[in-house]
């Protein structure tokens, strides 16, 4: 993939849950190095958008390309969406509630997928995991279990687990919303460090400060479509669309 080619492309993506239309024709490109923050009203399909990109949800119509190849092809018949399994391995996702395996140590959580799905040698996986844990200041917790960690520590471990698989795109779904306020900063700092390394990412967040600081682009979704797409200073500071302006003023209590 050359530097000018989009990292990912969504074209006319529709998602229905029975008669409920969640996405009604989503279109956008994502460039290499983009840090794309998705905002919008509750029920507007933000988390669904990430789950679709991760290959966890069917789409009833549309196509998604990744790394210059066809990744997902929609089908109106439930369960018939075509997903390229090899490309799905290039996407990492971190969820709101950690999803760590409670019966595995922290080291075990980091190494399991690398060994089982990528065929990494056990010692190589352990060495790589310990490098991540040392970088996060959690190397002394390697033999602990998730129940012995704080929420912020668990979320940083979840991010490290996704990074173990060397994804080309990272997805973050409200990863700080379940944390106590004093723990939010440590997770956001790790994500800002990833941004400095130009890790491509899509994230859903309600943290305005974080959105402004990490985003290279912000898209506002409402009614199942992209209403506005632009740099954070424009979408968050001086939105063009009245729906975006109303949302910013109402939800974030900021006059634009």
Could you explain how this protein is built, in words?
- The protein is α/β, with parallel strands linked by helices and 256 residues long.
- The protein has 9 helices and 11 strands.
- The strands form 2 sheets. A 6-stranded mixed beta sheet has the order 7-8-9-3-10-11, with helices on both faces. Strands 2-1-4-5-6 form a 5-stranded antiparallel beta sheet.
- Strand 1 and strand 2 form a beta hairpin.
- The N and C termini lie far apart (39 Å).
- The model has no long low-confidence stretch (mean pLDDT 90).
**Mind describing the biggest β-sheet?**
6 strands, mixed
Query: How large is the count of helical segments?
Result: 9
Please provide the ordered H/E string of secondary-structure elements. Answer: EEEHEEEHEHHHEHEHEEHH
In helices, the fraction of residues equals 25-40%
The share of residues in extended strands comes to 25-35%
Q: How are the SSEs ordered, and which strands pair?
A:
Elements: E1 8-17, E2 20-30, E3 35-39, H1 46-53, E4 61-66, E5 69-73, E6 82-83, H2 85-88, E7 91-94, H3 106-116, H4 122-135, H5 151-163, E8 169-173, H6 181-196, E9 201-204, H7 208-214, E10 217-222, E11 225-230, H8 232-235, H9 242-252
Parallel strand pairs: 3-9, 3-10, 7-8, 8-9
Antiparallel strand pairs: 1-2, 1-4, 4-5, 5-6, 10-11
Helix pairs in contact: 3-4, 3-5, 5-6
């Amino acid at each position: 993939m050359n530097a000018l080619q989009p990292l990912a492309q969504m074209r006319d993506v529709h998602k229905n849950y029975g008669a409920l239309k969640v996405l009604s024709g989503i279109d956008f490109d994502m460039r290499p190095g983009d840090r794309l923050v998705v905002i919008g009203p509750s029920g507007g399909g933000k988390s669904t958008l990430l789950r679709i990109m991760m290959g966890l949800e069917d789409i009833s119509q549309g196509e998604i390309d990744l790394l210059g190849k066809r990744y997902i092809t929609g089908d109106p018949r439930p369960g018939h969406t075509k997903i390229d399994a090899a490309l799905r391995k290039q996407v990492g996702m971190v969820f709101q509630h950690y999803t760590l395996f409670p019966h595995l140590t922290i080291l075990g959580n980091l190494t399991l997928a690398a060994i089982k799905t990528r065929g990494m040698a056990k010692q190589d996986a352990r060495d790589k995991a310990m490098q991540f844990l040392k970088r996060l200041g959690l190397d002394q917790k390697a033999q602990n279990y998730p129940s012995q960690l704080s929420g912020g520590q668990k979320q940083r471990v979840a991010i490290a687990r996704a990074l173990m698989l060397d994804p080309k795109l990272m997805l973050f779904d409200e990863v700080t919303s379940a944390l106590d306020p004093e723990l939010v900063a440590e997770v956001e700092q790790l994500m800002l460090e990833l941004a400095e390394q130009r890790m491509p990412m899509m994230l859903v967040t309600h943290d305005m400060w974080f959105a402004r600081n990490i985003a290279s682009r912000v898209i506002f979704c409402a009614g199942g479509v992209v209403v506005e797409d632009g740099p954070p200073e424009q979408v968050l500071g001086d939105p063009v669309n009245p729906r975006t302006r109303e949302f910013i003023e109402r939800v974030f209590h900021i006059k634009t």
